[in-house]
Amino acid sequence: MAAPSGEACGLLERSVRQRVPPLLTDLYQFTMAYAYWRAGRHREPAVFELFFRDNPFGGGFSLFAGQHDCLLFLRSFRFTEEDVEFLRSVLPCSTDPAFFQFLRGLDCSGVTLRSVPEGTVVFARVPLMEVEGPLAVVQLLETSLLCLVNYASNAARFRLAAGPGRKLLEMGLRRAQGPDGGLTASRYTHIGGFDLTSNVQAGFLFGIPVAGTMAHSYVTSFSSLEEVCPQTLVAANGDAGPVDVISLTKGWLSRVCELLGSEPAKIREGELAAFLSYGIAYPQNFLPVIDSYSVGCSGLLNFCAVALALSELGYRPVGVRLDSGDLCGQSVEVRRVFRLCSQHFSVPAFDSLIIVGTNNISEQSMAELNRKENEIDVVGVGTHLVTCTKQPSLGCVYKLTQPLCSAAETRAKVQSSLQTLSPRHKRLQEPDAYTVALSETLHNLVQELQKCSSDSNNFLLAN
Amino acid sequence: MAAPSGEACGLLERSVRQRVPPLLTDLYQFTMAYAYWRAGRHREPAVFELFFRDNPFGGGFSLFAGQHDCLLFLRSFRFTEEDVEFLRSVLPCSTDPAFFQFLRGLDCSGVTLRSVPEGTVVFARVPLMEVEGPLAVVQLLETSLLCLVNYASNAARFRLAAGPGRKLLEMGLRRAQGPDGGLTASRYTHIGGFDLTSNVQAGFLFGIPVAGTMAHSYVTSFSSLEEVCPQTLVAANGDAGPVDVISLTKGWLSRVCELLGSEPAKIREGELAAFLSYGIAYPQNFLPVIDSYSVGCSGLLNFCAVALALSELGYRPVGVRLDSGDLCGQSVEVRRVFRLCSQHFSVPAFDSLIIVGTNNISEQSMAELNRKENEIDVVGVGTHLVTCTKQPSLGCVYKLTQPLCSAAETRAKVQSSLQTLSPRHKRLQEPDAYTVALSETLHNLVQELQKCSSDSNNFLLAN
């Protein structure tokens, strides 16, 4: 995975500024900020907590991500003259002009953001972020922060469902909520455990490895071998002159049909032309989609013929993509044919061909795929991943905390808190102890600290 | 509704350029474009059709929108040197360097976009757009066009469910798929029939009317009347000096409690302070959220007291927002109290107060709300609107059409087409006629044309 370039990092920061101007918020943040300002309360210290109420997808956890974008947003939070003039046009005309002067000078220099570390497992009702600063300013940040705090949870669930051995490719850009929704999805699914994305701009901005070869439209755009051009290829070692790769492939196709007992009449010439054309363009990156017509009667045979021709010329074909039907069953049959070709034609490269499966994969079908016999090495996921079909929103909230709460409120809290305790712990005489266990990490940390402390005591004694 | 300014239009165009660079696409578009280029097919004329396969949300139609963004995207489609260098780093190293030279010169000047008009009702399997141009170029456009063609269908369904009389407010920014997802949602829900948005940037860029007053956090940030500042207000006509609005409101609160038989002890002083503070800041735009504590025991009484005080000073309060519980039932009770106050205190302004309802509204709860007795004038919708919970993706596809298809293919099409016809229409002798009816509009058009034609014949005869 290539790290994003310095330019890309700069672009990312500029992109956050452009994507999240301070006007990208709900109007009521401004009317409230004005009311605070009018009452002279705008500089009062305030703390808001950002949290969600229920773990998403019916699961037991969520994942926190988005801190970096939040920091960039805070850093660039400043109103332009154009912003202020627009606000003047939409706020009630009774708004004191001095408020707009106040907005002109506003930034987040007085704001402190405390947050759980990026990428940590988080739970319902536990604050993910605490935003502390002047009341009017932290109020104005609410909507943008809620919008920026994204979650890698859905991708992480797909990762868990897929098991650790399989590579996962995100390919949901076309189904995302607008262009930036697509970028957001690519970024956070990578954070959540996906290995690859089809989104080139996500590769450019975030350094995520990109992948992809061909669509069905490429295959169906060919109808005959006459369209293949050039029709020759030089061997990988460059030794001999150009080889007539069409004749070579036709020869291999006959042998493959014979080996598998297939009918040459059912083979689609356009598909063979498409594979050959792609193989000639990218002889070291040959991975076609083989189900445009029929995997068993045409696509698999055409793949094997072109891949065997490329192998004969010293190139290493990569694999195939299955995009419809019973992915598991087909992958098993495809693998069987690869092994047969490897043995029969003595082409060991056929043992390491990869099979990519893509076909409207949901969390459920991913889990099923993991239970059934199959030979799929890479799974591509689009719609269900980027739209979070199962639960498209986490429902985070941003609540003002009240550390100055009244005696009566604290009294009520004490009572309700006591009610959570079992009577056997509340007995005034000889109560049962409430067991508080240390986690393994905390236990180890305590032991280490004790050791350090004893070492340091020894050191003091020695001196 | 303010039209977007010239600057905003320019911003919108720049924003599309920045949001949809030509790299915002799937990698396989580039590998395919290269293979076409390598085979000398990149300039071949091609036509792709963009359509969807099933009407969304289990309904009978969809709505088309996004044409304008598509046009801006095509107009600005051009690779920067940085884009080309990134592509060089991710495409296989065997890629011919001349391909990158080809990309440097690429634009959409040879591309024709035909589309159904923006905002039209559309149906499954009918092309929404036809993109015609050089094969490699129209291939490269696929993912971005699919991502840009958005749909106002979900908003239109909410509009239909709400009935024509009620105003609809979109307030989903915080639940959207990233910042731009929020802007996209605000724009297309407005197109789909929503009247207002809470999203200020959407107001700035697209001229959508913005609305919003206060959140619960504003209410809970106050705890006592001492926090109200300033404590005076000058009457609307400016005649008298500053009036002690706290005493005035306290007086009204007693009278309201007496009228409704309410217990003054249950009233939250902090809520009254918040309402008063807001009312002093915006005396002509007073619309608080009244369910932070209890609508019946506190919020409604506090609202009436402040609104009556404002009315006495010649201001016109706007209304209330309900954000939890049984919106319909509460709205009926709130309206009853408004009417009672109007009559009892002779304040006719109380007859035109509006009630806003916002509480996790779905298409289903909107339809229910339309069936039950209620007094809600404006409904605010967030999560279910912007995330399209019911079906978060339409699943549009972009398919290469084949007008040069073979005789065999045409023959097969003829056969399957004939199979769709009933045998009684296929009888070779005395077949039943297949009734083709004219729509009313078409019938009128034909009559008009006949009339024109007869007029023009008359004209010819006369000459």
TrEMBL record, chains A, B:
One GO biological process term: NAD+ biosynthetic process via the salvage pathway
Keywords per UniProt: Ligase, Magnesium, Manganese, Metal-binding, Phosphoprotein, Pyridine nucleotide biosynthesis, Transferase
Occurrences of domain Nicotinate phosphoribosyltransferase C-terminal (ranges): 399-445
Pfam assignment, any one: NAPRTase_N
Phosphoprotein found in the keyword field: yes
PTM entry text: Transiently phosphorylated on a His residue during the reaction cycle. Phosphorylation strongly increases the affinity for substrates and increases the rate of nicotinate D-ribonucleotide production. Dephosphorylation regenerates the low-affinity form of the enzyme, leading to product release.
Nicotinate phosphoribosyltransferase N-terminal domain mapped to chain residues: 23-150
Molecular function GO terms recorded: metal ion binding; nicotinate phosphoribosyltransferase activity; transferase activity
Catalytic function, reaction form: 5-phospho-alpha-D-ribose 1-diphosphate + nicotinate + ATP + H2O = nicotinate beta-D-ribonucleotide + ADP + phosphate + diphosphate
Enzyme Commission code(s) on record: 6.3.4.21
Top EC class, one word: ligase
InterPro entries reported for this sequence: Aldolase_TIM (IPR013785), NAPRTase_C (IPR041619), NAPRTase_N (IPR040727), Nic_PRibTrfase-Fam (IPR007229), Nic_PRibTrfase_pncB (IPR006405), Nicotinate_pribotase-like_C (IPR036068)
Transmembrane portions of the chain: none
Biochemical pathway: Cofactor biosynthesis; NAD(+) biosynthesis; nicotinate D-ribonucleotide from nicotinate: step 1/1
Required cofactor names: Mg(2+); Mn(2+)
Family: Belongs to the NAPRTase family.
Name this polypeptide is given: Nicotinate phosphoribosyltransferase
